Amino acid sequence: MTLTWTANGEPDLAGYKIYVGTASGTYNVSGSPFVAGKVTSYTVSNLPKGQTYFFAISAYDSAGNESVLSGEVSKSLY
């Protein structure tokens, strides 16, 4: 599953975290959140088929401060 997003324009941006779960608002997939660095796409690998996944992204800065989560999106893998 590959996610893409628009870059955050903050000058102290350090990267993004990708939250993945199997229920809305519950980001319980092993390894979540995935730390993506300063990129605008990320591929989450090895998600089992037959499930709907929910995704949200946050940005974090060089001091470790993290933004609120983005709006959530979902995708079913079959």
Q: Which geometry do the CA atoms define? A: elongated
CA radius of gyration is 12 Å
Number of E-type strands: 6
Distance separating the two termini? 12 Å
The CATH architecture classification is: Sandwich
**Number of helices, where a helix is a run of at least 4 consecutive DSSP H or I residues:** 0
- Based on secondary structure, the structural category is mainly beta
Number of domains: 1
* Biggest sheet layout: 4 strands, antiparallel
CATH C-level class is: Mainly Beta
Beta-strand residue fraction: 35-45%
What's the helix-strand series?
EEEEEE
Q: In the CATH hierarchy, what is the superfamily?
A: Immunoglobulins
Contiguous uncertain segments of 5+ residues: none
Strand numbers in spatial order across the main sheet: 3-2-5-6
> Overall mean pLDDT score?
96
- State the helicity in percent bands: under 10%
Describe the secondary structure blueprint for this structure.
Blueprint: E1 2-4, E2 13-21, E3 34-37, E4 41-43, E5 51-61, E6 73-77
Antiparallel strand pairs: 1-4, 2-3, 2-5, 5-6
Detailed description of the structure:
The protein has 78 residues and is an all-beta fold. The chain has one domain (2-77): Immunoglobulins (Immunoglobulin-like). It has strands spanning 2-4, 13-21, 34-37, 41-43, 51-61, 73-77. A four-stranded antiparallel beta sheet has the order 3-2-5-6, with no helix packed on it. A two-stranded antiparallel sheet has the order 1-4. The chain starts with a strand and ends with a strand. The mean pLDDT is 96.
